[in-house]
Amino acid sequence: MSPSPIPAVIAVVIRDDRTLLVRRANPPDAGLWGFPGGKIEFGEAVREAAARELFEEAGVRAEAQDIITTLDVLVRDSVGLVEQHYILIAIQCRWIAGEPVAGDDALEARWFDLAELDPSRLAMSADVDVIARRAHAASNLGSS
Questions:
Q1: How far apart are the C-alpha atoms of 36 and 16, rounded to whole Å?
Q2: Is 108 a catalytic residue?
Q3: Cβ–Cβ < 8 Å for 50, 37
Q4: Which of 137, 129, 98, 136 is nearest to 35 (CA)?
Q5: CATH number for domain 6-129, candidates 3.90.79.10, 3.90.180.10, 1.20.58.100, 3.40.50.11740
Q6: Fewer Cβ within 10 Å of end Cβ, the chain: N or C?
């Protein structure tokens, strides 16, 4: 058990109205589709961490831009006690190069149309659809 929250990032990339997701290989959320991401290393800036994790997990290069939101992820044991507490910082990233290839902690990596992001049809981490739509709206504002 970690005595304090663990800071981590998720890289949210929107390209041509599609969102990049990876299917996670490891807990938490093993087997679920979510944004590439992971723990922030000591001395690493949030945006640097997002770009690094994106490349390690999906082979895609991007420019990390604005913070979209933050999320608390509480991992509980079998009796409901908190074992780990992650603070996820969602970073909007502008695609630069590369096509998704699963690496590092991912089983699969691919682009999804926003319409595909329906939690009743796709096994996803919490709020993936909400965050992707928010990022899509922000990217459309920036391109007008």
A1: 18
A2: yes
A3: yes
A4: 129
A5: 3.90.79.10
A6: C
